[in-house]
Design a protein that fits this description.
heterodimer; A: mainly alpha; globular; B: about 230 residues; mainly alpha
Chain lengths: ~500, ~230
């Protein structure tokens, strides 16, 4: 299995380097093929890890570790990497930029995916921090990639600056958390240890309480900045709406989850050291606040990608609340939610990207009649929005059902009720915005003036969305036995921490 | 540590260095020109390296000498050089101050410093009350590092130009390095080095984005970054 893990660390990086160094015309021809191959191969490698990880943890070279929890986040990132790689071929073709842009986009995309795949593979909290920091740096450049010099009202540069400054400051706090986690561990394990998670959990009962508590709060606030938890979410809607659409899909489906993974790691050892009461209370407060914010802001958004970004804040809030319930069924729901949200949000952003290519605008008021004009992407987008709103039979329905039932069975009636009410509010906000795009017929003037004809821009942009819907359906109707085994192992890991 | 007992030499040096670094942070808060901000940042970074050497000698940790050297090379030489070249290129003429940095304060220097004092006091007393200290952790230096973190956040908030905000972030990193040296001096060198290279990459990215920004608006001021809200 060491070979598989090393291949997972090498292939995306090699693809990024290859895309970056290829000369101009060759980059345009070869970079798409390299990226698609790397994406699909990485997902294959993640799947190859699944049978082994479902039974025991894998530790290699003292800095690499894959357990059930990390495998779940690897699955989410690996899947999105593969579908987004395919989607990007169509997107870059239709956006019609020069070969320099294509080279940067493909190289950046592979590097971004590499950092996100590396984060869950790290056995040490310090290396985890470094991987998350690299995701920030790479994705900030990707957000700025469509910035046009000298153009008035261009938001990409503004969004990238806001993102890099706020996320870096947040990660500064996360670094401070790493330092205090080290300090707490050093009291028991001695000065020279590498902040590996497993030994830290092993001696958790003997760790000093104050540094552990401080480390958890700083990690929650610091990594929470990248998760998009209120009140440190302010970069998120801007970066998601201004980034190229394939990047938005990865940001929302994979990056937020990877950052949440970091929080879960801190949760794991904090709960083992102090009991789960304290970290759960903290997560509940952040989760409810984020959900409330999202439910207020989904109304009145005029930009389709911003609307989806607020939906991401909603789902991250649901994850935080789910963990705060603490019941095994709720934790299983949270982990399933990570996978289902990756597929659904990836699909929704890819649909928004098709609209962007077709109509040349992100403004909801200018997007009309999509169900007529886009015979495939229209219905697929509708299904993605329904999935995001947790309608059955999507995987998100199953995961949210588990989270709520875990909350009720644990006696968290008020929090569960708030969750259901706010999710319903978001459902209204999301569906009113999106169904208007699909079902309101295009005014004659619009279709005539812009000469928008019926048809899909590119088959490359449809195939990944079909794959996403299939995954959502499978997760909702009958998750494969291996996956449920993996999830219950991860739940034991998180629950055993108590 | 018994509060009535005088601190040892190592603790005394660590505390003095932390206090001077905090004072430099205040200097940054009121400094109007980017050139001078970079100079202050260099001084602050040099102090970090000195502290690393002191700790290395006191606690017999040879790794820390290497770290001190690397940190000095990076933060005293490379980062300021990169920032200078960047700002030099954005200036109207060679060696002149770039547009948008001077006068970017949202508060008058007096109010900014006053706000800084409040932030520093909050950080200092809150962390002091936590009473975190091990064999290698002078509680005072840690509380000063916490104060510095908050003042660095304040610096990023009260300035409305990209250069000062970037320098605010770099000094935030200095404050965290201070805390790390005080409570986690035994952290393996490979991890410390990785943190430093991460900083270098961050500097390059900040630089590229500052150039993009300047290319757009011919100024380093962020006052026109108002389109994205809500």
């Amino acid at each position: 299995m060491l070979g598989v893990i090393l291949a997972l660390l090498i292939i995306p990086l090699a693809a990024a380097v290859a895309c970056a160094v290829l000369p101009g015309p060759a980059a345009r021809r070869l970079a798409p093929a390299i990226t698609v191959t790397a994406g699909v191969a990485s997902f294959g490698l993640v799947l190859a890890l699944l049978p082994a990880v479902a039974h025991h943890d894998l530790n290699y070279l003292s800095y690499l570790r894959v357990d059930a929890l990390s495998e779940i986040f690897l699955l989410a990132t690996g899947f999105l990497y593969a579908v987004v790689a395919i989607y990007t071929v169509g997107y870059a073709e239709r956006q019609g930029h020069d070969s320099r842009y294509a080279r940067r986009l493909y190289a950046g995309l592979n590097l971004f995916a590499w950092a996100m795949l590396a984060a869950p593979l790290m056995s040490s909290l310090a290396l985890l921090w470094i991987a998350v920091e690299i995701t920030t740096i790479v994705s900030a450049l990707l957000v700025a990639i469509e910035a046009v010099p000298g153009e008035e009202g261009d938001g990409a540069a503004e969004a990238a600056w806001k993102y890099v400054l706020i996320a870096s400051a947040g990660l500064g706090l996360a670094l401070l958390a790493t330092v205090f986690a080290y300090f707490a561990g050093a009291q028991v394990l001695g000065e020279h240890y590498n902040l590996a998670i497993a030994p830290l959990i092993h001696v958790a009962a003997r760790l000093p309480a104050t540094p552990v508590r401080l480390a958890f709060l700083l990690a929650l606030l610091g990594y929470g900045t990248k998760v998009g938890l209120f009140p440190v979410h302010t970069w998120l809607p801007d970066a998601h709406s201004e980034a190229p659409t394939p990047v938005s899909a990865l940001l929302s489906g994979a990056l937020l989850a990877t950052s949440f993974y970091a929080i879960l790691r801190y949760y794991e050892f904090t709960a083992a050291a102090l009991g789960s009461g304290f970290p759960r209370d903290a997560l509940l407060a952040f989760g409810v606040a984020s959900l409330l914010l999202a439910s207020l802001y989904v109304f009145g958004q005029s930009d389709i990608k911003r609307l989806l970004a607020y939906s991401s804040i909603e789902h991250m809030g649901i994850l935080a609340i789910g963990v705060s319930f603490g019941a095994p069924v709720a934790l299983a729901g949270v982990l399933l939610h990570v996978l289902a949200h990756a597929a659904a949000k990836g699909n929704a952003f890819m649909g928004a990207g098709v609209f962007l290519v077709k109509y040349r605008t992100k403004q909801i008021s200018s997007l009309r009649g999509a169900l007529d004009l886009l015979p495939w992407s229209g219905p697929l987008f509708l299904l993605a929005i329904f999935a995001l709103s947790a309608l059955p039979p999507s995987g998100i329905f199953r995961s949210e059902f588990q989270i709520v039932s875990g909350g009720l069975s644990g006696g968290h009636y008020a929090a569960a009720a708030v969750l259901v009410i706010l999710v319903t509010v978001v459902f209204f906000g999301l569906t009113t915005g999106c169904t208007r795009i699909l079902f309101t017929p295009a005014p004659r003037s619009l279709s005539a003036a812009a000469a928008i004809s019926r048809g899909e821009p590119s088959a490359w942009m449809v195939v990944p969305a079909v794959a996403g819907i299939v995954v959502l359906f499978v997760l909702g109707v009958h998750p494969p036995g291996e996956l449920t085994g993996l999830i219950s192992r991860a739940v034991t890991q998180l629950g055993a921490a108590r | 540590m018994d509060p009535t007992q005088a601190p040892g030499v190592y603790e005394g040096v660590a505390n003095v260095i932390a206090a001077v670094m905090l004072l430099i942070e205040f200097g940054l808060l009121r400094q109007a020109l980017a050139r001078d901000q970079i100079r202050l940042y260099m001084a602050q970074s040099a102090l970090i390296s000195v502290l690393a050497i002191v700790i290395a000698a006191d606690r017999n940790l040879p790794d820390l000498y290497a770290l001190a050297g690397l940190s000095a090379a990076l933060k005293v030489v490379v980062v300021p050089l990169v920032m200078r070249r960047l700002l030099g290129r954005t200036g109207p003429e060679e060696g002149e101050e770039a547009a948008g940095v001077a006068g970017s304060q949202t508060l008058s220097p007096a109010s900014a410093v006053l706000a800084g004092i409040v932030l520093a006091a909050v950080g200092f007393f809150c962390f002091g009350a936590l009473k975190i200290h091990g064999p290698a952790a002078p509680a005072l230096a840690l509380a000063l590092a916490a104060a510095m973190v908050l003042v660095a956040f304040g610096l990023m908030i009260v300035r409305r130009d990209v250069a000062s905000q970037a320098i605010g972030f770099f000094t935030l990193e200095n404050a965290i390095s201070l805390a790390a040296l005080v409570v986690a001096s035994g952290l393996p060198l490979i991890l410390e080095t990785a943190f430093l290279f991460d900083l270098l990459v961050a500097v390059v990215v900040f630089g590229m984005l500052i150039r993009t920004h300047h290319g757009r608006s011919e100024s380093l001021s962020t006052s026109d970054l108002t389109r994205l809200r809500g």
